[in-house]
Write a structure and sequence with these properties.
With 421 residues, the protein is an alpha/beta fold. The chain has 18 helices and 15 strands. Strands 1-6-5-2-3-4 form a 6-stranded mixed beta sheet, sandwiched between helices.
C-alpha cells in the first residue's frame, strides 16, 4: 500500500487537485511538500494535529516536509471560518509563537539532517515591494472568483477588509516561493484551506505559462504543483471535535494537561473510536479493523488504546502511562491526586474568608457559569471532599483545604484539584 493509499484508507484525505498526478509524484521519488501554520497562539491545538500526522506519514515514506510558519501571513490573519477580523499580532508575539510551534512539532517530525525544513514566510513577505507583488501575483486573481470562495463568504456579511483579501494572494505566493526555492510540488492543509491552496497551485502554473509565452522557455517539471486537504476532525454527527470546557484541546501541557488530553479521547462516543484511531494514530489498519469487531465492555478497552496512543504521540510514553494510571485509579474509586488536573486558588478568590462551591467550580472550569454550576449541584452531580454537595451556597474556608487542596468531582469521571496557593 502506497502512502497516499494509506492516507485515503485512514479517511484522512478530503480533496485533491489531481489524484493521478499526486500519486505519480509521490511514487517517483522524494517530494518536497509543505504545510503552513499561522502562529496566532502560543500553542498548536488538536485541529493542527491531522496535518502534522499527514506530514509524519509522508516523511516516514521518504518525502521531505517543509513546515512553513506564517510570520508574515500571521500579521494579517486567515479570514477562513471567521465572522470577525482576527486580532493583529506584534512581531514579538509571532516570533514567540513560532518557537513554541517548532518545539511541539518536533515530537512527531524529524528535523535533523535536512529530513524536514522549517521556513518563515516573514523572510519574503515583510519586505515585498507592493507594486511588484501585485504586478506579478495579483494579475492572476479575479475578485469575483475570490469572493466566491468559502473562506470569504462568512466575512462578507460583516465586512471583509482589503487587508484580509490579500491573505489568499500571500498564501498562494508562499507556495510559489517554496516551489522556486526548494522544488516544492505539494501543499497539504485542512479542508477549510481548500480555496487558498487552489490559489497557490494555479499561481505556480500561470506564472510558468506566462514566462513560457513571453520568453519561449520550457515549462519546468516542478511547476506541476498539486494540493490535497485533510478531513476536519468531526464526530459521527458531523460536529467539530477538540473542544473542552476550558476551550480548545491544546498540545501544550501547560494549557491542556496530559491527563485532560488523555481523558478527552478516553471519553469519546463509541461511534467515534475507530475513526479517531485511524486518523490520529499510527496503529496498523489491520489491527484497527480487528478492534472494530469488539463489542460490549471491550469498547472501553478500545477507548483506552486510542487515548494512550494519541497522548503518547503528543506528550511521550511516560506521560501517557501516568495519565492512563490516574484515569484507571479514578474510575475504580482509588483516587490518586498526583496527576489530577488542578487549579490554584489564591487569597483574592475568597470573600470574607470563604469561597462558594459555585465560584470554585467556575474557577476550576468545571462549569462555564454559576448558573451551570447551580444546575449541576441541584441535579446531584457534584461532590467535594468525598461528600455530595446538596447546598448550592456551600462554602469553604482555607481550613477546609486539607493537605492544601480540595478534590471536586463532577459526574462520575471528572475530578479536579483546587489547590490553595
Amino acid at each position: 500500500m502506497t502512502v497516499f493509499e494509506e492516507l485515503k484508507a485512514r479517511g484522512i484525505v478530503a480533496q485533491c487537485t489531481n489524484e493521478e498526478e499526486i500519486v505519480k509524484q509521490l511514487n517517483e521519488g522524494p517530494v518536497h511538500f509543505y504545510v503552513g501554520f499561522d502562529p496566532t497562539a502560543d500553542s498548536l491545538h488538536i485541529g493542527h494535529f491531522i496535518p502534522i500526522i499527514m506530514m509524519a506519514h509522508l516523511q516516514r515514506a521518504g518525502h521531505v516536509p517543509i513546515a512553513l510558519f506564517g510570520g508574515g501571513t500571521g500579521v494579517v490573519g486567515d479570514p477562513s471560518g471567521k465572522s470577525d477580523m482576527r486580532k493583529m499580532l506584534t512581531m514579538e508575539d509571532i516570533n514567540h509563537n513560532v518557537e513554541c510551534f517548532k518545539k511541539q512539532m518536533s515530537n512527531l517530525i524529524d528535523f535533523s539532517d535536512g529530513k524536514a525544513l522549517i521556513v518563515n514566510n516573514a523572510d519574503w513577505l515583510l519586505d515585498l515591494n507592493y507594486i511588484q507583488f501585485i504586478k506579478k501575483v495579483g494579475v492572476h486573481f479575479t475578485i469575483s472568483k475570490m469572493l466566491a470562495a468559502e473562506c470569504y463568504k462568512q466575512r462578507m456579511e460583516r465586512g471583509l477588509t482589503f487587508f484580509e483579501l490579500n491573505y489568499m494572494l500571500m498564501q498562494s505566493y508562499d507556495f510559489y516561493v517554496l516551489n522556486q526555492k526548494y522544488g516544492c510540488k505539494l501543499e497539504l492543509g485542512g479542508d477549510d484551506q481548500w480555496s487558498n491552496m487552489i490559489g497557490g497551485v494555479e499561481l505556480i502554473r500561470r506564472i510558468a505559462a506566462k514566462e513560457h509565452e513571453e520568453n519561449g522557455t520550457p515549462i519546468p517539471e516542478n511547476t506541476k504543483a498539486n494540493a490535497f486537504t485533510c478531513t476536519l476532525l468531526t464526530n459521527s454527527e458531523g460536529k467539530k471535535m477538540g473542544k473542552t470546557e476550558k476551550g480548545a484541546l491544546w498540545l501544550d501541557p501547560n494549557k491542556t494537561t496530559p491527563y485532560e488530553f488523555y481523558q478527552y479521547w478516553r471519553n469519546v462516543d463509541d461511534a467515534d473510536v475507530i475513526r479517531c484511531m485511524k486518523i490520529l494514530t499510527f496503529l496498523p489498519l489491520e489491527y484497527i479493523d480487528e478492534i472494530a469487531q469488539w463489542e460490549g465492555s471491550e469498547i472501553n478497552k478500545a477507548k483506552e488504546i486510542l487515548a494512550f496512543e494519541v497522548t503518547k504521540l503528543i506528550h511521550g510514553e511516560e506521560e501517557a502511562a501516568k495519565a492512563q494510571e490516574t484515569a484507571r485509579a479514578l474510575f475504580s474509586g482509588a483516587v490518586s491526586t498526583e496527576n489530577m488536573p488542578s487549579t490554584e486558588i489564591s487569597a483574592d478568590d475568597f470573600t470574607d474568608g470563604a469561597i462558594g462551591i459555585m465560584d470554585l467550580m467556575v474557577k476550576c472550569s468545571l462549569a462555564a457559569s454559576k448558573g451551570e454550576a447551580r444546575r449541576l449541584i441541584q441535579q446531584g452531580g457534584v461532590s467535594a471532599k468525598d461528600e455530595k454537595v446538596t447546598d448550592v451556597f456551600k462554602s469553604y474556608t482555607t481550613e477546609d483545604f486539607t493537605d492544601g487542596y480540595i478534590v471536586i468531582k463532577k459526574g462520575k469521571k471528572v475530578f479536579h484539584k483546587a489547590v490553595l496557593k
